[in-house]
Amino acid sequence: MVADYNPPQILISVNTKNDTYRNIIETKEFVVKILGTDLIRQTWITQKHFPYGTNELEEAKLTAFPAEKVKPPRIRECKASMECKVVWTKIIGTSCLALGNIEAISARKEIGKLEVKERAIALNRLIFFSYQKTDNTRNWMFAEIGKIHTLTEKDEETEIKNEAA
Ligand SMILES: Cc1cc2nc3c(=O)[nH]c(=O)nc-3n(C[C@H](O)[C@H](O)[C@H](O)COP(=O)(O)O)c2cc1C
After folding, report:
1. How far apart (Å, rounded) are the C-alpha atoms in residues 111 and 118?
2. Closest ligand 1 atom to 19 CA
């Protein structure tokens, strides 16, 4: 989630059992990627519990490339990246909150040029909203942008416009 704007900061929550947690504590840096529905299967592969040190990007056939300001890499197939340096971490139960200062943001060329609404549609950010497990089945559920809702305020009046994305 967005934590602040000036300087831009984001807050992430990572389970302390995850390699991601260990990497964040060791390097004090992380990169948050924005990806679309085209990478659902690859995302699922990287969430598997491989032994520490396994290159999960190779397992998922994703391509790492260097970040501008931090050591952890960006991923070629993702639409945008936020390169972060850790400000603080706080353990809450089984997870750790990490506040990151965004040192650099980059997006695919065609996305950077767009207006805010078109940019949101082009990013078509994968929204993870549910995980359910039954005896032998596990379901991860995702949503993507379907509608844009604009609230406009002018001279004390408000208007809400809804449109298909
Ligand atoms: C869509 C999706 C979202 C996830 N979000 C989180 C999260 O916010 N925090 C977290 O600790 N784990 C999350 N997980 C689980 C971790 O991705 C997974 O346990 C972790 O990547 C294991 O890999 P690692 O040990 O290399 O970190 C998520 C998994 C999926 C599939």
Report:
1. 8
2. 25
Residue 61 one-letter amino acid: K
Cα(127) to ligand 1 centroid in Å equals 13
- Alpha helices, DSSP H only, in the chain? 19-27, 40-46, 56-59, 109-112, 116-123
> What gap in Å lies between CA 33 and CA 35, rounded to an integer?
6
What is the residue type of 49?
A: H
pLDDT digits (tens, 9 = 90+) for 43-68: 999 999 999 999 999 999 999 999 99
For 36-49, b where at least 16 C-beta lie within 10 A, e where not — what string?
A: beebeebbeeeeee
Q: How far apart are CA 105 and CA 26, in angstroms?
A: 22
19-29: average pLDDT: 97
What is the per-residue pLDDT across 127-140, written as a single tens digit (0 to 9) for each? 999 999 999 999 99
Identify the CA nearest to 29 among candidates 104, 105, 107, 100: 100
Regarding the beta carbon of 14 and ligand 1, being less than 6 Å apart is answered yes
Domains of the chain and any CATH numbers: 2-164 (2.30.110.10)
